[in-house]
Prior knowledge:
Elements: E1 4-8, H1 12-24, E2 28-32, H2 35-44, E3 49-52, H3 61-70, E4 77-81, H4 86-95, E5 99-102, H5 107-139, E6 169-172, E7 175-178, E8 183-186, E9 189-191, H6 195-205, E10 212-213, H7 214-222, H8 231-254, E11 264-267, E12 271-274
Parallel strand pairs: 1-2, 1-3, 3-4, 4-5
Antiparallel strand pairs: 6-7, 7-8, 8-9, 10-12, 11-12
Helix pairs in contact: 1-5, 2-3, 6-7, 6-8
Amino acid sequence: MPKKILIVDDEEAIVRLVSYHLERDGYHTVSCYDGATALKLIRENDFDLVILDIMLPELSGWDVLRIARNEGRFFPVIFLSARNEEVDRVAGLELGADDYVTKPFSPRELVARVRAQLRRADMANLAMEDKELMHNSTSQTRSLKPNTEPYGSEADTPRHIDESVDKGTIRVGCIAANEHTREVFVSDKPVDLTAKEFDLLVYMMKQPRIVFTRGNLLSAVWGYDFEGDTRTVDVHISRLRQKIDPLIQEISKSQNIDCPESFLETVRGVGYKLISKPDPKTTSKSNNDFGKS
């Protein structure tokens, strides 16, 4: 099945040119001419790659990418823009774009860059599938035996380690993370995390209820020499919420226990903290000081 690519530019001639060369190379293309329509299409479709202009009507390319990334949509993005200053190229890449091509451009080079980005995405997907296969094979012979109580129940204490399993296991509420096997479970359900998502989660699990600035987390998890933007932290926090919050909510609902909106709370103007132990007897939606702000 051909890869599906979204082309967004307010110049119809450029859209036709890019679409022609990509379709000649075997790709299926979808086109639009403003940022609001682009965001709508992104939400309604699974695109393999997006080519995005910056100066668009209604919503800029910056805003389209920022909103998409905040919503957990992580397809490859190539900015195609007449803005050729270094500050624009750097800003685009730090915002989450995978490549930046300036106008005027070579259609053949653009197609080559598209191929390169799709190859990288395919390799990442294959690596993830291999990891899942390895996990499935090892899980048949070993069980982490995580806590089945809802997140933040009275049965738990921060950083509780179950002596019946590996000593590398950290447990906060119904979340269990094993530093030796790099596996995470919510109750008995495995959670598939990337390397940095795992490192970020474990770092915060070791210090529940401590408020971390984005700079703190960048230094601790990515290293002092990391040259990216603090928005990297926001993206990874968003991914952790999307993967873990629904499982916690499911457990709490099945046991008729109210729980915070998210296990990772936003502390306005500061950063984030991991909630360690809300009391299910007193926590409610109408009086909840553990909710995500």
